[in-house]
Design brief:
With 859 residues, the chain is α+β, with helices and mostly antiparallel strands. Helices cover 43% and strands 20% of the residues. It has an 8-stranded mixed beta sheet. The chain has a 5-stranded mixed beta sheet with strand order 15-16-17-19-18, with helices on one face. Strands 8-9-14-11 form a 4-stranded antiparallel beta sheet, with no helix packed on it. It is globular, with a radius of gyration of 28 Å. It starts with 7 loop residues before the first helix and ends with a helix.
């Protein structure tokens, strides 16, 4: 990654000097097919004409381009020597005029890492597919530009492609004389321009709406995927969610969708969930389901579709000035994904998913040493890449949910409407949003922003209950605490719920009060005199962002009666709180596993159930005392098989328990059961073992040495697709052999031959919790390699390797000491690399504390 960084100071200096009038970009991607070009990377021709103004004639600046070579550069009609002005990442621009025209003719490289113009060859039929992915700064790998969000401009693209291909871009396009030409865009940032090209399967529809002024709005809709996935593509459901989302946002935003058409491309080997390119949203193709999945998967896809759609306004129409204010788009989109899902689609429980899944991501991120305020200090592009995290997304969205409770939904939405109209096609900072919210709410937003957006860390809220002699509440208070490293005590608007069992045994709420928690202790006067509760739930209804704790009585009630809690959101909040207690070494991990085994089978929310499965597996792998792992694994395997057999035939819980059983199976009888389900000698009534479930069953069989290379090759022949290849690569790397581990390590660390998707699959197979002894030699190799990997590989692959191969399964003080030794010896390493290692160290340290807590419980 040398030479590819851009600092905030450089960007600000360039934005103060330049303004951009427009781009014309011509790409020739016919080289994507056919034989390779010999030595070096496969390349395509990129010609950019960039028109811009300079407010200080005679000044110097630079354009961005990451390319193997530049054929020609012309500035204001003067031919420049590429060898003198291009250094591999930047084009020097000297003696600028007031009005300038830069023309750059370059050979740019196709990508295999999902950054820039990614080239994918489908193993099923040999077809080639292209797509671009740029955020935060990879459009410079495809065309010369000013790669920063605040230098917006209109774009015109034209693309020469193989005759049989179709090409899409942000604007509407048509082919003439062998060239695809696309309508000029509105002023947008470089990172949300897009090109998709290839023999994609394409389905169309349209959205129509009469606006308040009587005009008719018609938006052409399209959805595309690889031909091999076409039989599985449920485009009708994608269009249904799309139309429901467009209705919802038009109802609430009072600003018509501004970008013409609305295509959605599901593309292979994608690093992200999706990207909000206006007019051409890209998604990872795993959102096209090849086998049976639960309702939670469809809800997750709908959430992503709506999240990206919200970006058309928050992020594309109005864009942050620099990555410091990334939250201005991502936090809003994350909030709007759940808000619109509940308000417009069939997924009315989306806030439960948000509370249980998205917030878990935020709570973890906010307790890492790398935690940061929602409005972060982003010094450069490497910082920006790492800040697409749980704080920017889920904590920021949680803060907005708290903001809605604080100012009211009407004031919040009216603020959004004014924000769009005031700053359309422009760039903003924090203060621009706060000013409109102050107008619409009458509240002092500066104090709220200081507490919620400009400080880091998560608060804990714990109830204190004092009872009278008559058994009623004499006083109920909420105690707020903060970590020593981030001592901010925030104002919280919370609901406090009181629960007790009914005559039928159900645990139900009988009293509730909303209160503004401020400071270390807040008395909830409204609940004085209420009958004594069995459970007090602080942050009932999930209004704020906090870690919820329990008093002794409430915790005892949950240990015995968690499954009797009838409200699904309250139940999800209790599960989340118990998991946070486990991670904080306040609840022994074996106790959490016991609660899952006892009560998860009663869970009605399929998304919550699948989250409990993930947490239980994590508790077993990382947080139980090592001497109890074998026992815990056996209990989870027995419990999962029991629930699998008892689940309703063909139901979503049955599928979820089948996948969890595969994840924790380790005993010989359990592995035999999986083999039987694969070959048909075992049956579970209603369980359809489709191709995706077959791979899920093969993974533990490979990891325990039951499924060898020949078995996996036979399965690939059965599923000779891109998805099948990824599954096979993962399973191959999972086999319990020193030679296998050495080969996997070499493929990922010592070579760059694998694509991003196959790097990810190999790492997933390499790290198996049942193979700690096999992985022990790689701790030293990891620390000897990561600085070189970070310097030589793309930032995406660097992140995958540094995160994925950290020796977290070598959970001992020795590994912690080795991590500290590396950090001490590499104080001058790239800050982003050090951040990744510090985060992994924190996870390891937390695991060791959890193991100590669990061991103490056994004494």
């Amino acid at each position: 990654m040398p030479g590819e960084n851009l600092s905030r100071d450089e960007a600000r200096e360039r934005a103060a000097l330049l303004s951009v009038d427009g781009y014309e970009v011509s790409l020739d991607v016919r080289s994507a097919v056919g034989d390779t070009q010999g030595e070096g990377p496969r390349t395509f021709r990129s010609v950019t004409t960039l028109r811009f103004r300079c407010n200080e004639p005679g000044a110097s600046s630079f354009a961005d381009l990451v390319a193997p070579s530049v054929t020609a550069v012309s500035l204001n009609g003067r031919d420049l020597d590429p060898s003198e002005v291009f250094d591999g990442t930047r084009i020097a621009l000297e003696d600028l005029a007031a009005d300038n025209e830069l023309v750059v003719d370059a050979q740019c490289a196709y990508s295999r890492t999902g950054e820039g113009l990614h080239r994918f060859v489908d193993p099923e039929d040999g077809e080639v597919y292209l797509y671009t992915q740029y955020e935060p700064a990879d459009s410079r790998r495809v065309f010369a530009n000013f790669e920063q969000p605040d230098l917006k401009a209109p774009f015109r693209f034209e693309v020469r492609a193989p005759e049989e291909w179709t090409v899409w871009s942000n604007g509407a396009g048509e082919r003439a004389d062998g060239v695809w030409r696309f309508a000029e865009t509105k002023p947008i940032s470089t990172y949300i321009t897009c090109v998709v090209a290839g023999p994609y399967h394409y389905v169309t529809d349209s959205y129509e709406r009469t606006l308040e002024d009587g005009t008719r709005l018609e938006i052409p809709l399209g959805a595309l995927c690889r031909k091999g996935l076409a039989p599985h593509f449920d485009a009708d459901d994608v269009f249904l969610i799309t139309k429901q989302g467009l209705d919802f946002f038009h109802d609430h935003f009072d600003y018509p969708y501004p970008f013409g058409k609305y295509d959605q491309a599901f593309v292979p080997e994608y690093n992200l969930g999706a990207m909000e390119n206006p007019g051409l949203v890209t998604f990872r193709e795993e959102y096209i389901f090849r086998g049976k999945v639960t309702r939670a998967s469809y809800e997750g896809r709908a959430n992503t579709i709506l999240h990206e759609m919200a970006h058309m306004w928050f992020g594309d129409l109005v864009t942050m000035e620099w990555w410091d204010d990334l939250w201005l788009k991502e936090s809003f989109a994350d909030f709007m994904g759940a808000f619109a899902n509940v308000g417009a689609t069939r997924f009315k429980d989306a806030w439960i998913t948000f509370a249980n899944r998205r917030k878990a991501w935020a709570y973890r991120a906010d307790q890492l040493p790398s935690t940061h305020p929602v409005t972060a200090d982003i010094r450069d592009l490497e910082d920006a890449k790492l800040n697409f995290d749980g704080i920017t997304y889920a904590k920021g969205a949680s803060a907005l949910k708290q903001l809605v409770a604080y100012v009211g939904q009407d004031a919040f939405l009216e603020g959004a409407r004014r924000y769009f109209k005031r700053h359309a096609y422009g760039n903003t900072r924090l203060g621009d949003l706060l000013s409109v919210l102050e107008e619409t709410s009458g509240r002092d937003m500066a104090a709220w922003a200081r507490s919620w957006l400009q400080t880091a860390g998560v608060n804990s809220l714990t109830p204190q209950v004092l009872l009278s002699a008559e058994g009623r509440i004499d006083e109920l208070a909420v105690v707020q605490e903060a970590a020593e490293t981030h001592p901010e005590l925030r104002p919280h608007r919370v609901a406090v719920g009181l629960y007790r069992r009914t005559g039928e045994g159900a645990l139900e709420r009988y009293a509730r009060a909303e209160v503004d928690v401020d400071g270390p202790r807040t008395v909830v006067a409204e609940l004085a005199g209420a009958e004594a509760p069995e459970l007090v739930l602080v942050n009932d209804d999930d209004l704020t962002y906090c870690k919820t704790r329990f008093d002794d009585t409430s915790l005892a009630t949950l240990r015995e009666h968690l499954g009797a809690l009838t409200d699904p959101l309250a139940r999800a909040l209790c599960w989340s709180a118990l998991w946070n207690m486990t991670r904080d070494a306040l609840l022994p991990a074996r106790d959490f596993i016991g609660l899952v085994l006892r009560f998860a089978g009663r869970e009605s929310g399929i998304g919550v159930l699948q989250m409990l499965h993930a947490w239980a597996e994590s508790a077993l792998v990382h947080y139980v005392a090592p001497e109890w792992r074998e026992t815990g694994g056996r209990l989870l395997g027995e419990g999962a098989l029991r629930e699998l057999r008892e689940a309703a035939p063909g139901s979503e819980p049955q599928l979820a328990w089948a996948r969890f059983f595969a994840a924790v199976a380790s005993e010989e009888a359990e592995l035999s059961m999986l083999r039987g389900l694969l070959d048909g000698s075992e049956k579970i009534n209603g369980l359809e073992v489709d191709q995706e479930l077959r791979w899920a069953f093969l993974s533990p069989l490979a990891a325990h040495g039951v499924a060898d290379e020949a078995v996996l090759a036979a399965e690939l022949a059965r599923d000779d697709t891109a998805s099948g290849k990824r599954h096979q690569v993962r399973c191959l790397a999972a086999r319990p052999s020193a030679a296998v581990k050495a080969q996997a390590w070499a493929q990922v660390v010592e070579s760059d031959a694998l694509s991003n998707a196959l790097v990810e699959a190999t790492i997933a197979g390499f790290e198996r919790s049942s193979q700690r002894e096999l992985l022990a030699p790689y701790t030293e190799k990891y620390f000897a390699s990561i600085e070189r990997v970070w310097a030589e590989r793309s930032i995406q692959i660097g992140m995958d390797v540094v995160r994925g191969l950290f020796p977290s399964l070598m959970d001992s003080q020795d590994t912690l000491d080795a991590t500290d030794a590396w950090l001490s010896a590499h104080e001058d390493a790239a800050p982003a690399l050090r951040r990744l290692v510090l985060e992994a160290r924190d996870d390891l340290s937390r695991a060791l504390r959890g193991q100590a807590c669990d061991a103490a419980a056994a004494r």
